[in-house]
Amino acid sequence: MKFEILETIRTNNFTDLEMSNKFIELWRNNADQVKLFFESGLTVACVYHQYLSDYQGDYCASLCKETKNKSDFDTANFSWLSYSVDVSDELGVYHTWQKIWADEADRKINRLYNFDYEKYEASGQVSIMIAIH
Fold first, then answer.
1. Do 73 and 3 contact (CB within 8 A), yes or no?
2. Would the pTM count as exceeding 0.70?
């Protein structure tokens, strides 16, 4: 799957007091486009990249659309571990990231830190894809 960037923010999970607001604005700024992509059956992704270090350091988050042509990210270049998100949980994405961080801290996974992404499908299904060694 290939993705093209719509908009990018830079933030930190632990030190950026504006992190939540940045993500809210990212999705709000692109809400009309996202709706059209879903209506067309396309996948939308929030891609995490340009990591300063690991999940505790600064990183970029880019809202992206699925594309067949020009792409900023190509998932074919990596191996992936998929974490399903409980979409009935309002904080499902956040809780899933907490599980990923715990798995990493417990050495259950070995993240690559090239890019990872949240995969939002037109069906409403959400998963977080982690690039692994």
1. yes
2. yes
